[in-house]
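Fold it.
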Amino acid sequence: MDSKIEIKVTNPKKGDTVGNPAGPSPSSSPSPASQTSPSPEGRHRGHGHWHRHRERQQEEWMVDFMPFKKWVPWLIPGFVLVNIFLFIMTMYINDCPKTSNKCVAEFLGRFSFQPFNENPLLGPSASTLEKMGALQVDKVVKKHEAWRMISCIWLHAGVFHLLANMLSLLFIGIRLEQEFGFVRIGVLYLIAGFGGTLMSALFIQNGISVGASGALFGLLGSMLSELITNWTIYANKALSVSYMQFAALLTLLLVIMINLAMGVLPQVDNFAHIGGFISGFLLGFVLLIRPQFGYISQKNVPPGYIAPRKPKHKTYQYVLWVISLILLIAM
């Protein structure tokens, strides 16, 4: 999933129309001096020079004609800042010294944390989280507070919970936004977070739930589906899965294990993780599909060249796209 990967066309077969000039280029026309040379030998040398120049132009274009665009990430860092800001606001509203005499880190004043026996994650009380918009099924169903289905993914139960999610989000989300842009990753993040909330609401009828873990697991799931649907690109001899991609997969497994382990702690649930992962996995097939190796968009072909028409995507990519979309709608 390295954004520096470039699609390359090398060693064209004899008779292949890739890069064949449709006509002489104005920039490569012979000089006036060569035109006035009466010597046949001079004319032959001038023609050979022009031919070698065209071959070099052809080779340069065939190597670098379509690099994957690299986006500048800003949305994921923005999400991180929003989550941190809301946690600070939650701690300000919590005001532990006002309700308890055994606050943790009392020197922080009203930003001090609830006792460990109440919240081992260094965070606010459950009542404060509920006030800020935590998911509570009774209020969603009976009081029609559907906004809690979205607001809960921006809240966190404590410092440990916040740090684990935000560090993982920065490492994974920035890479995805660099490769696919803020629109697709933003849509994926929000829908996966909502999918995690739905799963949590179905299985946790009592208590509250908060955290961006569902959205984070959605990004993790999309990484896996992106690798599957674009496998022919990475498996091609001209491209290789780099060390960074291997490290990203190991990190993916590590993050999954850490977040699943945290799912047994208060205000954090693994149902949101599972729902977010499934949603992100299916969305990855829909949103993160790449053109197959060798596809050449006509808008990227320089003037004077004829590019072969090849399908943009392989059949299995279309099949996965349709199946995933149907499953998402059904969910």
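Residues 1-45, 58-67, 237-242 have pLDDT under 50 and may be disordered.
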